[in-house]
Amino acid sequence: MTADPVDPADIIAAALSRLRGRRQHPHDHGPHEHGPHGMRPRGRRSPWGADGGLRHGAPALIRMVEALSAASEPLSVSGLAEAIGVDQPRASRLVQQGVDRGWVRREADPDDARRTRIALTSEGVRLFRGVRGERREALGRALAAFTDEESAELARLLTKLADNWNV
Known about the structure:
Elements: H1 8-20, H2 58-70, E1 75-76, H3 77-84, H4 88-101, E2 104-109, E3 112-120, H5 122-143, H6 148-164
Antiparallel strand pairs: 1-3, 2-3
Helix pairs in contact: 1-6, 2-3, 2-4, 2-5, 3-4
């Protein structure tokens, strides 16, 4: 059996990113990562580090930047909402926050002037690369305890989970 030329850590990171957009939201009254009042439980730090402009809603903003980076072309607001697992009004608010921070821009859809597409700015690309690098380093540290076979199996299983997750 020959080794897959794709690093399992990249596959795992992609699957985790897809799963993050599909978790239940607090208003669904299901389990979620934050405690009461949207606060992160004491002692838990975001794996993305402190970014002076990110406060409440940071995970969704990061998912937005990730989705736009992964897209082959700018996305509509509804396409973005679907990609990150939020409703269209929430996606619209995230886009506005991204515009305000200089991470994304709105542009006219060349096929339908009534529609707007959302694209990353150069600042958004820089942000994505920084977040991706921090996440990749953290994932690399965590995977150091795994054998090559275990890493490949984890990548396979997480991808299968992401492919079949229907919330």
